[in-house]
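User: Fold this; tokens only.

Assistant: Input:
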Amino acid sequence: MAVVALLALPVPPHDGGSGGGTVADAASAVVVLWCVARTVRGARRPLTRTAAVVLGLPVLGIAVAAVGASTASAGMTGLVRYLQIFVLVPAAILVLVRDRRDFRLVAWSLIGLALFQGTLGVYQYVTATGASYMGSDVRAVGTFGPTDVMGMATVVSYGVVCALALALGPASPKQRQAALVCALLLVVPLALSFSRGAWIATVVACGAQLGLAGVRRALRTLAVAAAAAVVLVGGFGIGTQLLQERITSITQVTDAPDQSVTDRYTMWAAAVDMWRDEPVSGVGLKAFPDHRDSHASLALSSASDTGGAGAQFSRQPLLSPHNMYLLVLGEQGLLGLCTLVGSWAAFLLLGLRRLARVRGGAGADCALVACGLLVWQLVDFSYADIGGPSTVLMAVVLGLVAWWALSGRALSASVPRSASAPGSISASGEVSR
């Protein structure tokens, strides 16, 4: 929860796109160290064989790509970052989350962060103090600034997915109503983020959650959402010309793409070209910027304009293809892509299998949270990759997903706190006496 809460701190303008560590990253390191200390103190195996294989699978591709990096410092930096996001923090959360109550507490903390960032984003839009968009400072970015315009959109999307899952779960009526209200409120800042990728991923994830929750409940929720949309758009006039043009542009990515879409297509092609040069192991971690110009066409503008939200106008270099799958393919080759995507596929299959076991019963809300977050992330990876201060939140989300898919405690009743002393519970769900 501290890692989540620290992401509410404002990001200095000069740090937004540097890729440097933040206070939240430091807190995630403390979480990992605390997990190691608990494991050593308990003298018990922290992970089952399945959990160790699924979580450890990406290490192979990451390590090989780190060896092939352009410089030793780039390889080490990339190795630490990838291990933090996809291995160490998720494994620590898998070990430290004790039961479904802890899981829901972290989920509600994600909703709380989303409400904070979303409220600030709406204020930025109303007062024209947000990031620059189409000549106006109206883009909602929260505390993440103009160099991480996807930060607030990601946080708010996580909040929508978590809130909808809790609203569809077996909790008390008051909790379900509160969660549904939070989900509807968060739709506004999500729209004002002008992030097409986040919109698409949220629609797909929420649609999957509604389908998995059952037809009747899905229809009731859709009816409430439709009524709220009518009130917001018709009654309060939410739906400006800029927002309407942004929505329309989703269908124009092939017919009449704007410069941002053209840049993205060009970088996607460059990543594929890098993979053709090194099909097995890729060009090395953090090597995409070094090889970009030699593989990209002249259509690439090489930088985007950023400004507003308290920052001066600047040109931000385009240092990644904005597609996680192609970034991994270009830098880590088929080995890295298969190991990383294989780990995510295992999460999804194991999570869905467990969801089928608890459908409509205790733990169904946790299942919908985990499966919804993973679906959102997998879809969003088609339009985004790692980078920026909000990246550490991705590690927390993957930790929740891993806990539901791999922990024996996910399917058991909550453990009494007296029995959950540090080091007393293994990842398989065993309790020492």
